[in-house]
Amino acid sequence: xxxxxxxxxxxxxxxxxxxxxxxxxxxxxxxxxxxxxxxxxxxxxxxxxxxxxxxxxxxxxxxxxxxxxxxxxxxxxxxxxxxxxxxxxxxxxxxxxxxxxxxxxxxxxxxxxxxxxxxxxxxxxxxxxxxxxxxxxxxxxxxxxxxxxxxxxxxxxxxxxxxxxxxxxxxxxxxxxxxxxxxxxxxxxxxxxxxxxxxxxxxxxxxxxxxxxxxx
Length: 216
Ligand SMILES: [Fe+2]
Ligand SMILES: [Fe+2]
Hints:
Layout: H1 3-12, H2 17-37, H3 41-50, H4 59-69, H5 75-79, H6 89-97, H7 102-110, H8 120-131, H9 133-136, H10 140-149, H11 153-171, H12 177-189, H13 192-204
Bound molecules: fe (ii) ion (2 copies).
């Protein structure tokens, strides 16, 4: 275990128990997906342990940190400050945890909204966060994302983002510009027939949505 991993595991002891348990489930899921997709185990370990470092912060605190960091807010960040807990962790991970790997920092930054240009590590963390066993149980669509992730990270990303957009429309949630950019990129690069069939299957599978689409 290196210094950053030790510090992150120690930090987990200070967050609410339910959040720490979620992080450990994401870690296990991310390591499993990393193994399948040839992603570095150490990098995925650090990214998973770090991803929700700021998740327990209130909206007010996140907005204050954003101002302190001079972080440029997307309109969706103002409407749903919870989305900021990914990107705002980056300077803290650099300064207090000595994490300098851009791929790992990007994984943490993008786990709330996704983004265009995501790497395999970043997709593995994003998906692992959404399909960890407790979330998977809540919606058939998320179960489908988990199945796709066994063989095709991009198909899983696209299926999850489609699901998120449907839930956002139903629930009146804002869509972050990074989420739209991520989905457009995947639509442009992923085989469209496969995606259309998957979208139709998701539509057919029912209207259960649960709340697992809320915090990307
Ligand atoms: Fe998170
Ligand atoms: Fe998470």
